[in-house]
Amino acid sequence: MTIRISIIDYSNTIPFVYGLKKSAYISTHSEFYYHYPSQGVQRLQDNTVDISIVPAAAISEISNSHIISDFCIGAIQQVASVKLFSKIPIQHVSHIVLDYQSRTSNLLTKVLAQEFWNIQPMYTIGEAGYETDSTIESKIIIGDRAMLQYPDYPYSYDLAYEWYQAFSLPFVFACWVANKPLPPDYMQEFNSALRFGVEHIADSISQSNKRVSFDLHQYLQHNIDYAFDTTKQQAMQLFIEKIKSLRQ
Q: Quick check: helix, strand or coil at residue 163?
């Protein structure tokens, strides 16, 4: 049986990819596909993959979904790769263009607007290329694109840090999810492979073919926090509750 794995094609998955490919068992029994977050969700829903890193807000939308790993994409405070860029201070923002690549970050923006920033902006979804459109007042950008410089935007807000300021909790952006029961031996080796990658971040960076303009060591060792521990589980549950309470 070959297990089909969808991986978010961002730098924050470098340790995961390293660990999975270092495992002879996983490499032999798996096929790897690379997507941005919402595409991975769609592939699980379409049953064209068996495992994916799923944005926290989308887990409940997948039939038979269950979290399968002790690891996630999370942050204790600043994540650095999920930001709101604005030409004006957040308290004056009236329109936010959301990122088409991830629903979770967009919902996090709405939760913060309602519960922490106390604003009621209009929202629209950005189209491909919106990142460089300097006519936009305020925009959400996630992933490696958020680590670039946007000189037309003097204000930037790290959404994980804003969440921490609001609720004194870390934030979980995505978890490893399967849409069906998988062999126990595979699941055990899968989790062990992820652990190996997280415990060897420096090696994973040195062997990665990703070339970026920011400090990967700082980002992966100090901004991203991979442990899906009890506190992060509580934080994710709170986020899901906050989503349900959003104004319609």
A: helix
Give the strand pairing for 155-158 and 122-125.
unpaired
Q: What's the CA gap between 34 and 144, in Å, rounded?
A: 15
Four-CA torsion 63, 184, 205, 209, nearest 10 degrees: -70
Q: Which pLDDT tens digit goes with each residue over 206-248?
A: 999 888 889 999 999 999 999 999 999 999 999 999 999 996 5
Please tell us whether the domain made up of 82-167 is placed in CATH 3.40.190.10: yes
Secondary structure tally for the chain: helices H, strands E: 9, 11
The CA distance from 161 to 170, in Å, is 8
3-77+171-244: what fold? D-Maltodextrin-Binding Protein; domain 2 (3.40.190)
Quote the pTM value.
Answer: 0.93
Phi, psi of 225 (to 5 degrees): -125, 120
Write out the two tokens for 134: 């300097």
